[in-house]
Amino acid sequence: MERADYDFFVIGAGSGGVRAARIAASLGAKVGICEDARLGGTCVNVGCVPKKLFVYGASYADAFHEAAGYGWTLGSPAFSWNTLRDRKDGEIHRLNGAYQRLLEAAGVTIHHGRGRFVDAHTLRVGDREVSARHVLVATGGRPVVPRFPGADLLAFSDDFFTLPELPRRLVIIGGGYIGAEFAGIFGRLGVQVSLVHRWPLLLPDSFDDDVREAVGEGLAASGVRLHLHRQVSLVEKRGDSVVATLDDGLEIEADMVACACGRVPNTDGLGLEAAGVALREGGAVAVDEHLRTSVEHIYAVGDVAGGDQLTPVALAQGQFVARRLFAGDDKARPFDPDIVPTAVFTNPTVGTVGLGEAAARKTHEDVRVYKSSFTPMRHTLSGVFHKTFVKVVVDGATDRVLGFHMVGEEAGEIVQGLAVALTCGVTKAQLDATLGIHPTAAEEFVTLRTAVS
Prior knowledge:
CATH topology of the largest domain: FAD/NAD(P)-binding domain
Distance between the termini: 61 Å
Radius of gyration: 24 Å
Number of helices: 13
Strand content: 15-25%
Largest sheet: 7 strands, mixed
C-alpha cells in the first residue's frame, strides 16, 4: 500500500493495544488507535486493577479479626461499600487519564468510537474512514452469557464493580479466576456467598490439581458455600428474591445471582469478514506464532486472539508485534508459553509459574515432586484457619525445575521472583544450595528435600 493515513492502526485501547501503539510510535511509525469505551480495557476498568483494590479492601475484615490474637482490643468495625466503590472509581478515572496522556505523549492519535473494517486496509470509526498499512485487533473479551431459563435475570462479573449496594445473599455461577476471586471478596465483606461450579475442582484444569484443591479448601474454610460438580438449570424471581435451581434440584435463594463463567473474544461488529480475517472455533481471531491473522498485514493480540487471558501476556504480545513491524525484530515468539507466571487473588492467594504435575508427566518420563502444607507463623496466634501450600515440580532426568506453585498469603509476590529463576533455568540443586530467609513462608521453596511419590 503506497499511501495511507497511518502506518499502524490499533482497534482497542486496552493493555495490549496501548503498548503496541506506544512502541510503534516510539519507533517512528504514524499511529492511530480507537476505543469505544474507557481507555485501559478490561484490566483497568473491570478487571485486574479494581478487583485488586476490592481484595485489599476485603482483607481488612480478616486483619481486624486476627488482631485479637495478638492482644489488640478493637471496637466493632463498620464497613461502607459506597466508600470503597467510589474511591475505586476515582482511581480508575485517574488511570483512564494516565493512559490518554501516555498515548498523546507518544504521538498516537486517539479516535473515540468503535472501529469496523470496511476492507482490509480501511476502517470506519464513527463517521470517519481511516486507512492503514498495518492493523492490530486488540478488542479484548466480554462476559459469557449462559443459556438456561431465567438467564435474563443474571448479573455479570462486570456489574460487581458498580453495585449500588452489597447483596446480603449472592450466588456466583462459575469457579474460574473471576468467580473464585469474587467469592472470597464478597464473603469477607459479610455477604453470604454460594459458589456453583460445574467441575469437581475450582479454577481451570491448566492449574495444578493440588493448587485447585487447596483453593477450594481455603474458600470453604472462610465460609463460602461450595456446590461443586453442579450446574444452574433455572433462575427465577420469587418476590424480592432470585432463586437459582441446580441440576440436582437444590434451590438457593439469593438477592443476586451473578454469572462468572469466563469471557469470550470480543469480535462482534468489527467487520472482520470484510477484511478477510478468519476466526477459530469459539470466536477468537486465528493467529500464527507471529500473531499475524489470515491477512498478512493484520495482527491480533490479547484476549481476542485466545490463549492466556492475562495482562502481561497482552503487553508482551503488543510489544512483540510493534517491534516486529517497525524495528525488524524477527523473534519467533514474544515469550515462552510454558513459563507464564500468574496469580489468582482468591482467599488464600494463588501464585504459579511453569508446569503443574499432571502436565509435566505428559511430557517428561521422570518427574519428581516436592510439596508441603503448613500453618504460616502469623496464624499460630491469630486463631484463624489458614494453610499455606507450596509445590515444586522437577524434571528428574535433568534436575531442572519445571514449575513452582503456591497457595497462601503473598503468593503472587513470592512466585514473581521464582518466575525469574525458572526463566533462567534453575535446578533443584540450586534451590537446595540457596539460603532461606527465616522465618518466612517463601523459605519453604529452598528447604524442601524429600520428593513425594
